[in-house]
Structures are given as structure tokens and as C-alpha cells.
Amino acid sequence: MFVCAGCGTELTAPVSRVALPDHTHYGAWERLHPPLMEPATYAVEPRPTGPPWRSWDDVGEDLAAEQGVYLRQYAVSFGSRDRVVIAPGDSRGTALILDKCEGYCMGIDGRDGPNLACEGCGRPVATRMDDCGLWQTVWLEADEVRRVPSGAPAVPVPGWDELDLEACAVAPVELDGSWSFRWEAAVPVALARLVVACEGRPVTLPGPLADLVGDAVAGYLPAGPQALTARLAGPGRPALPPGGDVLLVPRHPVTGEPWRPPDGTAPVVPLDIGVWAHLVLPGETSPLPATGTLPDGVLRDDYVLPLRPWRSFHPHGRAFRDTLAHLPDIRRPELRAYYDRYGGPGPY
Questions:
Q1: How many CB atoms lie within 10 A of CB 95?
Q2: Is the model more confident about 134 or about 300?
Q3: Smallest Cα–Cα separation from 274: which of 252, 293, 245?
Q4: Is the model's pLDDT at 264 over the cut of 80?
Q5: With 50 as the cut, is the pLDDT of residue 312 above it?
Q6: Which is it for the CA torsion 16, 19, 23, 26, positive or negative?
Q7: For the segment 211-249, what is each residue's pLDDT rounded down to a tens digit?
Q8: Residue 279 near residue 232, CB atoms below 8 Å
Q9: What is the spatial distance between Cα 191 and Cα 220, in angstroms, rounded to a whole number?
Q10: What is the DSSP letter of 287?
Q11: Reported confidence tier of residue 32, pLDDT bands at 50, 70, 90
Q12: Neighbours of 314 (CB within 10 A)
């Protein structure tokens, strides 16, 4: 658990570390969101985040690179590194600092810095964020808290073969027929990594992903003859022959590390494991009738059809641009054109 660095007051319930989600900073504008983190978990953001912000013209290219930003952005964060994010329900022992609770329209957006104070000593220790377009979070300031053993048994990190992929999978369509916010952020994050991994060369998406969102994301990827093929690879998948293909692989939900092929020859592009698992798991199958079996492809008339979206897929443009801007290789001439095309200001 985490405690106040000043007085030792407990600030969280017992929590276990997991990977920082790809969609952490990318929500849908004018929408309320659920908590980012699952209960009893935390993640660490190594990059600077939050205020103070400085304009690119004031910062310059060299100083921006020290902050992990490698191409022009509207503003560069000089906030804290290694902030810890938890679900709001796991927060303990804090009180809102009322004069730092500004927001856009539906909640608090953290624009004024830490807005939660330790109830023991009044020290500003964290920032609550829950405004529209933001996942509900509490961000603990790395310099204001300490990590201490909770006394609960340690949770072992599962190996790749021990993961329950069905439990990891995230459906692309919500129950109300809207596209998953997580998908709309995680897919363009992976596409930005794919652009860099392919060094600007044309590339085609794997069939399951292309079938779902190929038309919506076509403009994000280079096209042309002699295209590389991005393939889905990972635990439980058939081994692929060696070659020049790019592999879309899952990020481990606890460590955040991408799965690696045994031969280690093909370049890999990490993809949100929730998205990856949905793409590789078998699709819905019809239940067997009372007697006999149905022909392949024929569904029973009482079969519940899969959910279908009521609108087209909207890739989160800022997720794509930000990911490109934080990859050092984007400064290479053959990749700069892609950032120039998608790197303008705008929330989406």
C-alpha cells in the first residue's frame, strides 16, 4: 500500500502493480468514463504528466527530448515522473482541496495540480481526475508517498501460458452498441508503433483486425506495392515461418512486456492484450441442437446474434499523434511525414 511520505497516513488499500494501460490518457470527449484501473491494482507512469505545461517554442527541441517528446507538440509537460495511478475506490485517508477542483463540465480535470490532501498532515499527495473525456483515476505524486508492505500475500506474476485469455479479452462493442473507448485508443496506439516498426514502408493489417476497423484506420498506415504483412502472434498461436513479417503481439497485463517469438527474428509491435485476445480467440459458435449437428456456418434460430455497432469506428487521433511523438525513431526522415500529417493540435 502507499502511505504519506510526511506522516505515514495510509493513502490506499492494498494494491498490486500491473501494466499501465495503453488508453490511460485517451478518453472520448464529452463522455463520462469508468475507472481506469481494476480494484486493488496500481500502475506507474514513467513519463512526465500533468502541470506545469510549457509551450514548444519556450522549450525547444533538446529540452523537449529530455522530457520524452521528440517532435513538436502544442505543449510539453514538466509534471512529475513515476506518478502512481489507482482506482478512486482504492483511495484512503485524503480530502479534496476545494480551491483546486477546477474542471471542464462534468468533474475535476487536475489542471491545477494535486487536489487531494493527506488527512493526517494536510500535505498535497494526489490528484483526483474524473471529468468528461477522462478515465476516473487518482494519481499519487511520487515524491509525496511511500510504498510499504501491506501484509497481504504476494501475488505471483503469471507466465504467458498461465494467462486466461478469455478473461483478458475486451469486446470491441459495448452493450449499448457504441464502440469501446479502450479499443478506440488502443488500436491507434498500436498503429503508431506499427508505422515506426515498418520504417515507413507499406503494411497490411491482419485479417481479423482489418475486418473490424480496416476502413476506419486505412489513412493511418502507408500503402503501396510490396507491403509488409502484420500478423497476430502470441501465446497459444501457431508458430509462424521466419521472414520479414511484423508481428502484432500482446503486452503482458502485469509486466507490460511484449510477448516475444521463440526465434526472436521478426520485429514485434505490442498491442493491448484485451484487443489482441479478442482478435485471436475463436468467434461465437452456435449451440448444438437437441439431436444431430448443424452444418458449418448455420445458426440456430434462437441464437443470440453478436452485438453490432451503431456508428463507425473512430480512432483516437490524439492517441496516434502522441504515441508517434514519444517514440525516438520518429525523428528519422522517412517517418517524419506521418507525424506531420497527423500531428496537429486537437482533442480527437
A1: 11
A2: 134
A3: 252
A4: no
A5: yes
A6: positive
A7: 999 999 988 888 788 888 899 999 988 877 666 689 999
A8: yes
A9: 7
A10: P
A11: confident
A12: 15
Residue 347: pLDDT above 50?
Answer: no
pLDDT averaged over every residue in the chain: 89
Q: Whole-angstrom Cα distance, residue 269 to residue 209?
A: 14
pLDDT digits (tens, 9 = 90+) for 123-162: 999 999 999 999 999 999 999 999 999 998 888 999 999 9
Residues 6+ apart with CB under 8 A from 56: 64, 72, 73, 74, 75, 76
Distance CA 9, CA 75 (A): 35
The kind and range of the H/E element at 193 are helix 181-197
Cα-based torsion angle of the residue sequence 74, 79, 84, 90 in order, rounded to the nearest 10 degrees: -90
Q: Apex CA 78: angle with CA 77 and CA 80, to 5°?
A: 105
Cell matching residue 96: 479534496
Instruction: Give CA torsion, residues 142, 144, 147, 150, to 10 deg.
Output: -130
Q: What whole-number distance in Å separates Cα of residue 190 and Cα of residue 269? A: 7
Q: In 3-state terms, what secondary structure has residue 72?
A: coil
In the three-class reduction of DSSP (H, G, I as helix; E, B as strand; rest coil), residue 190 is classed as helix
How far is 31 from 198, CA to CA, in rounded Å? 34
